[in-house]
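Repro case for the chain-ordering regression, as requested:
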Amino acid sequence: MPRFLALAALALAVSACDTAAPESTGPQVVVAGFLEASERLADVRITRTVPLGSVYDSTAVLRDARVEVQLLSASGGVVEEAVPYALDAETGAYVPTLTRAALAGRTYRLVAVALGDTVTAETTVPAEITLVAPPPDEVFYQADPRGPQLRITTSSVAGRQSVYIASTAAQAPDEFEPVVVDGEERFRSRNVPGRFRPVPFVALFADCDEVGDRLVCDEDPNDLYTSGSSPIINESSYVLPGDGTAIVNVPWLAFGFYGPSTISLVALDDAFQDFVETQTLQQNPTTISPGEVPNVTTNVRGGLGVFGSFARITTQTTIRER
Amino acid sequence: MLRPLALLLAGVLLGAAAPAAQTATVNGFVRDAETGETLVQATVRVESPASGTERGVATNVQGFYSLAGLPAGPVVLRVSYVGYAAQRIELTLAPGETRQADAALTPESLGEAVVEARQQSLSDERPPGVADVPIRLVQSLPTVFEADLFRSIQLLPGVKSASDFSSALYIRGGSPDQTLILLDGTTVYNPTHFFGFFSTFNTDAIKDVRLFKGAYPSEYGGRLGSVLDISSRDGNRSRTAGTATLGVLASRVGVEGPIAGGRGSYMLAARRSTLEPLLAYLRTTPDSLAVPDGFYFYDVNARVGVDLTPRDRLSFAVYAGRDNVRLGFGDDSEFALDYGNRTASLAYNRILSGTVFASARATASRYFSYPTGTIAETTFSRPNTITDYSGRLDTEWSPTADVSLRGGVWGGILRLGLRSEFNGTVATDYLNPSTYGSAYLQTRLRPGAGFSVTAGVRAEAFRSVTDDLRTDAAGIPATYVRVSPQLQVERSFGDRVVLQAAAGRYHQFLSLISNEAFSAFDTWVTTGVGVEPQSGDQLVLGAKTRLGGGYRLDVEAYGRTMRDLFDIRPEVQDVSGLAYQELFRFGRGYAAGAEFLLEKGTGRLTGLLSYTLGTTRRRYPAEPAFSTYFPPKYDRLHDVTAVASYDIGRGWKVTTAGTFATGQAYTAPTDRYEISGLPFSTTSADGLFSPSLNNARLPNYHRVDVGLARSGRTLMFRDTEVQLQVVNLYSRRNVWFVTYDFDANPVEITRVTQLPRLPNVSFTVRF
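-- result from build under test --
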């Protein structure tokens, strides 16, 4: 019996020890680089992790790394060309020292030496997409319940269907200035000529009231809704007429303000898709238990982050009030 | 394992076929003397003074027992059931005679229950892994808002809850979908109200609850872990009676009475939320945006049964439950959710002969969930339905006192429908028609020397037609057949100790996509092309002892494996165009533990004290973040529960329940980072890094609830009960989970807590 009690006490002690949160074991190299099909090789940022309880600031940027991006041969892993990168002291990013375009369908390898470690990552650039039919120059808000329509050529990634992220950005949102109303800070629209109001649902979520010809809001709508992006959308979700194009309706939910907005569609490679999906899961878990925080999937060997690639089209339309 | 089982079954059949001309048979039903309700798991012991033999059985789910192979001559039946006065019946049996001897037990108040220890067999009462849940205890336990069956079950050893906000059952390391939940033999797919806060079963309508925590017998199947078998009440055969209960969250009414001249009965119980006045008030407050424009739930249980002859009984039971919420935002935005269950069961029972009992049942079950929403003219909907029609036939044959056989078949059609639509475009339109069938054979032998052996085998087939979401082509069929053997061995040492061992293999063809905090979007998925059935093995070792003075101590150790687990890949944001198997992650796991249960069932003070030492782990090898074994959130090393009910006298009773448990597993990140320059966003993406998943523990969980009940005359009503309860007496702010806010620098860490102290009051009138 005393032995049993001793074991039970030990078990309880072990259990109690579990409650102590583990501590950081030191910084890790974090890579952020995104090659765009047919565009100049992109800048790469090399940073480090910081302990969870620490302030994240510019000291996280690693300025003494050695960075190189290698174009691999189409048939295998042979380096066809290596492009050295150099630090841009102003931005803290590493920029290519040679002018080269990222070739669609080709694989690139990043090699970086930082914090005494060598990290590597590879990405295969998706096929380009082109805009076949842009949306109308002007559309009336919610006139078509499905939103503005455009048509693109579809991208392709070996072994799977293409996946996209749609994003919008208001080009001329009205400005809001802080005001004190009944002792509380609120935000009042300035009604700047050539700038436009938030759409009704944004005004609702920002707790806006009509006061004269102004909007007075609890939150500054510009902080919340000038730009937005969709979750990952599989190519099969679009209307596919079968001619190599896809018809895309951008939902009204994506537009936060009236006036001119840019619309972008970005096709992602595998590494980028994995990163986006798992980063979203980590920050906005759905079917996993609350408090379960899975690590973000990375293609960076020896580090964290993502070295990915994408293809993109960008267009514009103007949203008018009905 | 199958070959020895087959030989064993063959031996049993040959042995059972031997003539027994000089023996007699006694069978019958055991009922409540006041209401005529049949009593499930009542103990019937028969003594033969001439031969000095003594045998016993427990009544089945229909309240029926059969004792064959008895020596002719005088015998004494002793019939007992907890909470009822034991009954003694003296009979003189002629050689070859079959006598129907029904028993009617008189209920006594729980504090005065008489239990004659030597008349009950521990193994007859409770096979390994089985827990009976006294419904009277469920009704008296302090709870938030409503007496709740699942919340009471969560107090049993080996059963855990995910949080104060979830009534889901996590049994012996298994997730909620690993428990088969049956109401009158009908599968219930979403047993929740209030988005999972409490279970869907109205305790006024329940007669019997039996939980098979593990290594369950062959008569059940289709789940990896456990079975919860719930029987609704038949209704009062003697007189028309009713109840009405006014509660904080919901109110209940019930009526029951005899039909067909007392040869049958009916029961109707209904419950509806009564939150509307509170919601109306909350909508007038400044922060009314999150207050629903409408919310209600209801459930209705009804049952009618009649004895066509003394040997034939026909019964029909239905259940309907629904939750409905509507939340509006401004002029062009609204969210609405409508979900619920419907079940129906038509059962026919017949005593085919003195030793053979048969039951046929047709069941229907439907679960639906219709979430819809509109934000800025952008509409979305995700209707999800399950329809399950089944038929089953079960027979029991007790050819001798030492041999009983049970066999049956169960088959059905299951349809799962899921459609998701966004902004006028159908993203998923998925109908998965499945057919299933199973057959089992199970025998129980008493070879002597205190041994009892139960062996069974179950064969299951499941055929589903799953949509390959890559094309619009018709679905692809996939059929899986699995065989599951089970074996249980018991050795009794007198009337006070029994040692038990049980093992079995189990399979599961369905999996549940659920959110621990919100059950209304529950979606079931099936096996299919590339998606094999889940399987697992279980081993249970147990000892049950009667300590005297109404105390008993049960100890059980269990171990189980889980293979081919499949559930939805949580990171997938769009399923369009994916092959069926691409929807899933595949994993494995294990669980092990030991449970100690000290129980006192008689006297003024009744209750239980339980301790569970348990662990469970899972892994999904192809998912980088889940590839090594990790403890699920509900894993707890220690779990202590105490439940006590004291009959003060003069109608007063106090009940208390306390829980202490190791803090749940959670992920404690050690580092953070940022990814900037994303081509679709002007802001950075935040990242957290942790050395492993669920690498830390929340603070230990503990809570005490108390309740005081007064029965008797109140105002003009003769038979009433007032319940005053306090949940979380000392307002322990147990942590539910941890959140990380990146808007602050450094990251702000918030511990989200569970229920504070909450009072509850209810008033019940019986007439």
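Ordering looks correct now. Helices of chain A lie at 2-17, 200-205, 221-225, 270-283.
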